[in-house]
Specification:
The protein is mainly α and about 55 residues long. It has helices at about 1-25, 30-45.
């Protein structure tokens, strides 16, 4: 009986785990969003992000 309950609990958790993994992979963190915004603002001002060696 305990084995059946464990299996049922495992099956109930799978949709939650897959949703959490999807969200973690597809939604930027706050830090990533701020870095993207910062880079976009620098580019908009005409700054170079990388120095060229030539």
């Amino acid at each position: 009986m305990a084995n059946v309950i464990d299996d049922l609990e495992h099956r109930r958790r799978i949709p939650l785990i897959t949703t959490a993994r999807y969200m973690a992979a597809h939604f930027p963190t706050r830090r990533e969003a701020e870095q993207t915004f910062s880079i976009a603002m620098r580019l908009d001002r005409g700054e170079q992000l990388h120095e060229s060696d030539s």
